[in-house]
Amino acid sequence: MAQGADVSGLFPEMVKAGAVPDVVQKKLVSFYVRAQAPRQPQLALLAVNSLRKDCAHPSPAVRGLALRTMCDLRMPGIQEYLQQPLVCGLRDKASYVRRAAVLGCAKMVKLQGDCEILMAGALCFADGALVNELYSLLRDQDPIVVVNCLRALEEILKKEGGVVINKPIAHHLLNRMPDLDQWGQSEVLTFLLRYKPRSEDELFDILNLLDAYLKSSSPSVVMAATKLFLVLAREYPDVQADVLVRVKGPLLSACTSESRELCFTALCHVRQILRSLPGHFSSHYKKFFCSYSEPHYIKCQKMEVLCELVNDENVQQVLEELKGYCTDVSVELAQGAIFAIANIARTYTEQCVGILTELLGLQQEHITSAVVRAFRDLAWLCPQCTDAVCQALPGCEDTIQDSEGKQALIWLLGTHGEKIPNAPYVLEDFVENVKSETFPAVRMELLTALLRLFLARPAECQDMLGRLLHYCIEEEQDMAVRDRALFYYRLLQAGVEAVRRVLCSPKSDPSLGLLGDQSKQPVNAWALEFNTLATVYGRERWALATAQQPSLVSEGNKEILEVHPDTPMSEGNKELLKAHPDAGSLSLIPDVSLTAEQFEKTWLSLDTSCQLSLPWCGPVHADTIQTALRVVHIQTIAMSKAGAQPWKAYLSAQDDSGCLFLTELLLQAADSELQVSVKQNKAKPEALQSFISALRTVLEAFLLNLPIKVGFTLTQGLQ
Amino acid sequence: MRQLMTKLLSSFSLRLPKSEPGTCPDSSIMIGGLFIYNHKGEVLISRVYRDDIGRNAVDAFRVNVIHARQQVRSPVTNIARTSFFHVKRSNIWLAAVTKQNVNAAMVFEFLYKMCDVMTAYFGKISEENIKNNFVLIYELLDEILDFGYPQNSETGALKTFITQQGIKSQTKEEQSQITSQVTGQIGWRREGIKYRRNELFLDVLESVNLLMSPQGQVLSAHVSGRVVMKSYLSGMPECKFGMNDKIVIEKQGKGTADETGKSGKQSIAIDDCTFHQCVRLSKFDSERSISFIPPDGEFELMRYRTTKDIILPFRVIPLVREVGRTKLEVKVVIKSNFKPSLLAQKIEVRIPTPLNTSGVQVICMKGKAKYKASENAIVWKIKRMAGMKESQISAEIELLPTNDKKKWARPPISMNFEVPFAPSGLKVRYLKVFEPKLNYSDHDVIKWPCSASPRSSATFRDVCLAPRRRLKDPVAHPGSGLACLCSVTIHAADEVQNPVMCRAIAVVVDVAGQSEMSGVLCQCCSSLEEKGCSGLSLRLQLGGTELAGLKRILVIFPCVHLKRTQKPFPLLTWLLVVGAKLREAATAEQLHLAPGSTPLPSVCEQVPGVQVVVIPHRWMKNSNANPNLQCLDCGLKAET
Questions:
Q1: pTM above 0.90, yes or no
Q2: Where are the coiled-coil regions (chain A) (predicted)?
Q3: Tens digits of per-residue pLDDT, A87-110?
Q4: How many CB pairs below 8 A link A and B?
Q5: Residue B391: which domain range?
Q6: Nearest CA to CA, how far is B161 from chain A (Å)?
């Protein structure tokens, strides 16, 4: 089963096997039933019976297991059987059963949400009563039940914004904190973020109560507590600073702990703190030195931390240490260390350039390449080190093999060529080997660099510039490079002054480096993100990861489109669709599972909210319409055959608030008007408007296309 | 058509409901699924708790992480909006999957906890063990997580209702036990435990983490320690544990002035410590006393970390010398650095060897050493070693010539041992047990420290197999930004003007004042061969600012030996040496010395603080079959 094989054929036998007294066997059967129930909903009902019997078993272990299993069955219609055992479970005297029951409520409500239409009228287990029951269970004496209640309420009330933490609940939770295990503590601390203390006194009372958790044995509780403190004390910067000082110890020990992954997480948080309080960990810089056995990701994080906490006192030691990493066997790490040094070089230029220059002497390919790249950035950001860089450069050209490194070297030679005596000769080597040069980007860089150098030292460069231009214009395969060459050629025709105006841009931009350094974030900017994945991934990556949603949806739909590649649609329609006003706030949910019977029932029970008619001529192409509607998440429930008189189609769609749109399309005769009637199960006029405009857009698109289609169908008919 | 549809899409801006990052503080721990893979990426265990985690998540992790070519980028991976948290135990991957914005530390802690629970049930987490305990693991996963939320994960509590044999039927008594256990105020101990003999064992386990620079300076050292207890006590005992915590001692010392003087040295400053759930934190905060009701069986009472005044029980001085491309000479000296009356036990030194090792010859004075090809290491075991002793091993490693450009990463030497004291200086002052109802009989009362002596084992990590870089590397050139504070030059010449070969290995050790903290500052080894008669300069560089606290430098030249290519030279205890005054810029004084002369005393008088020691060869018969003499220290064979 772990391999994903379908073993649902054995269902009846398994259900029988579950009816024995042996608990372990029961557990295995329960596991099986849970995994297979969605595949065999009819047979799963068999299991329900014996499970209900188990719910009244004298042993709490069996009761809890049965309840949990029942709640995990993911199939429609189970709720009916669930309510009664759940209510009993919530009042069971064994806390083991109560725990299962509380989470069971959440599972049931979730299941209900998934097929809400099904239960639309028949919600026997009133939501309100359930929620109240759960709120009262927050006072349960078992700590896990309390935490489970919070979790369940959060899921059930998600649409209303989650569980409400008011003053009595908050204080109750605060009092129960010592009884909870680490998972519970961390969770409760997170829930307490919602609570806003009424007064300053209350705030500080809470902070005092929670103070011990800043030194908890579990790093995650420490972090959760830190976050709570930072968020609650958002108006008291001195309190925030104090909190960060207090968690320094626990964070440092997490950073040096043997559990790699925790260490990684802690390092991510340290970096986050350093962004606001540079120098916060400066006295402990030795803790962030890498040791041999650490995995690559920790070493990288540590190097970044080291970069951030450099100050006048420790810069010597930190650089010494980073220098050691530069000669590491791992190419990635070595280059990382070089870039880290380059980063520090923005502030401590002289020492760092010295070290980097020294590294060039090793004549290692990857090291030289990284160093030259670092030099390029430095020359751009810190003009004061240009001379030192220029002195170090000669001799590098033989070692560098990769594209990035070559580009950097050529840029330096071109831009600062007047300070490097042999610059033209190095470039000449490149020009001579330009035919065998594999990277177009390098050739492009070479063109620009040589032209720049030509401006500074015309006598030495004129000849080879001519050769290079000739090659690039006559023989070059890459269009971008050729275009650039042509452009330069014409520019040269316009005179040297013109070239100078175009090419002699500033050679450095020190303001860029300073901007990057001085942006000190206030603590409040990230307090809410602390202890979430946003910190671990980094804010940019996290934003990227969460923003992917719309593009994913469109990808999904592309696949649908590829299934119907012959769906006709002309260019003109696109323009029309494009011009159509944005349907803005409406968002329809894909994959609403609504059966024909449910549709009919709902259709009959509702009144028509809107009716309109569209001009229509010619026959209907059912498949095409269906596909097009599916793309905008409108499902076709039923449709007459093409050519039938009158032609009818029933459509359904649901938006994210659960509002259901049911639509009837009616075409009386072939060349008349298409009658559209829409029904809605909630009165939401704005959503209705958006829905109708969406529907119109799709339908009108077909309408305009018809003449071509008619011809097409006719020829088909003749054949 | 496709373009049209995309346009359509964009005009409707189809959005699924999503939580906005940053604004919504939802960082619960909700684990959508748990997978366990073997090293090949085959799924051993898969348990999905939430619908939003599909079957394809299993494959996504395998393809993107386990089978990825490059090394693991991060323990948290985001694949298609799903976050995968993984932990590796030997060659088993455990991955927790979630779509929520969760609390990363918590998920990792939970995975560790899960590993602990599994280890408590069936020992080491290995593929075989997992396959043999399928049922048990599924049972556990069902119990510790429900709907993706962590539930009870205390091994003690779990063991009462998940037994490996399975519970056939339960008596009434057992049932009520579960209920009381699970509902009771004290989650970690059940009531009604009875033992005939009440015993309590205590272990202090410390691990020393040492980071040394390639020059041999101690960059940072810290001890992370654990106090582990095994309790077999009846009833609900209340325990109190006291140690030589600086804060406590100072507090008590206020009353009696004498005690402060006595115990002042012995107390330790604990940087931070964390306790088992059972310890009353409020009492610790107010009174610094550790009182608790212990769980039954083995548990970890506390964890602590210290960074100050760490006693390093051993010093490891490694020397590596490359002889040509196919041979490597390694010599490791370990020195015990504690009272001679104490004994260290079960010492194991692990010396890594390059991957292309073809054969190893090992000679050691004490203990047994073996080359283990499968682990790429020489393992040297010594049963017992007294304090202030020294022991060494030398090995000749033959290498296969390879084309592999990749350099050997030179992993650190690691060392394991048990010493009868704690490197952090932690001492147990008392351990008291009170049981209000049962009143243990006299002979039952805890026999600490007589019954269980503290055991501490420590691991040196990152003692470098120095030099991490070869000295030939230009990085180590003088004037390269490294302050070259002291330089020692050896200059050898042979009166016969014949090519000579010198095997000299110089070790500069600093003995820094009272703390007796010493480390290898620098090693240097080279051969005179190339230079021939003109002599050889060995330049030792001592870099860094640490020299400021240096009191004395000891230069050791073990096995200085000159020989002509033709016939062996008699043992020469001549030498040369030394330039430079401390804390001054590099001045390489070269002394030209004739063999046989003994200039040492005079030189040493000139430069206070520098002491030169020459250790002669110690010839010994190699084996009975081979009557050739070989030097114990450097492994040089004497030619007959």
A1: no
A2: none
A3: 888 888 888 888 888 888 888 887
A4: 358
A5: 314-420
A6: 8
